[in-house]
């Protein structure tokens, strides 16, 4: 430890950095051991951060993870420059190849925020314009990122039915249990999908770009009129999405990261 004049502030940042480096929520004891801090100090810092939304406590597992406020900070940094600057030419090339609309989004709490939107010629306009926020569980891009998070972190974001909102009465994902089933399906096939949950008659497929730890940092999606794209064509679109997501990860973090699976 350094001789900081504001030890509480320094230790708070150290705890946040430690939580961010883990693949999922951890116990207070592991924080105390790793940072060589008294257990009482760790509990005090965690309580303050819980009150401010930067940390969530999962009492059934006795662990702590990053809260919505921390996700908001991280996604704000990513979308301010690197993600949009590096992702835009890749999405433009993707749209030129597949002839459908495509976008790139990042998580912001329980929402996705659209960072890049590329429109294909003569294709219908969409609601997913740059800066638009939509509940993540409704979107293919959001589901692709949620499926890559540790299950405990998803539970922290969606602890109960009140965490869910919907755009249409037909939306099926309205509880933690239904979200769990959808994310399991997403992990099994290796890509996310939605059909009519954002806009009636439109469907999307999505793949997440990953960081050097294998955690999702962005969702890349292609959106199309559902009745015009059959299952085989959707798989072909996913193939192009995987390649684009891999290229984005390389541009952000360099070679050697896990990449989309």
Draw up the topology in text.
Layout: H1 7-21, H2 28-35, H3 39-51, E1 55-58, E2 63-66, H4 68-80, H5 82-98, E3 101-108, E4 111-118, E5 133-135, H6 140-146, H7 151-157, H8 176-189, E6 192-195, E7 202-210, E8 216-225, H9 231-253
Antiparallel strand pairs: 1-2, 3-4, 3-8, 4-5, 6-7, 7-8
Organism: Kocuria carniphila
Domain HTH iclR-type: 6-68
Protein name: IclR family transcriptional regulator
How would you describe the overall organization of this protein?
The protein is of the alpha+beta class and 261 residues long. It has two domains: 7-66, Arc Repressor Mutant, subunit A (Orthogonal Bundle); 71-253, Beta-Lactamase, CATH 3.30.450.40. Helices cover 45% and strands 19% of the residues. It has nine helices and eight strands. A hairpin with a 6-residue loop joins strand 6 (192-195) and strand 7. Helix 2 (28-35) packs across helix 3 (39-51). The longest helix has 23 residues, at 231-253. The protein is globular and about 60 Å long. The relative contact order is 0.12. The mean pLDDT is 86. Residues 69-254 form the IclR-ED domain.
Q: Which labels suit this protein?
A:
two-stranded antiparallel sheet; 261 residues; globular; 6-stranded antiparallel beta sheet; Arc Repressor Mutant, subunit A; Beta-Lactamase; alpha+beta; 8 strands
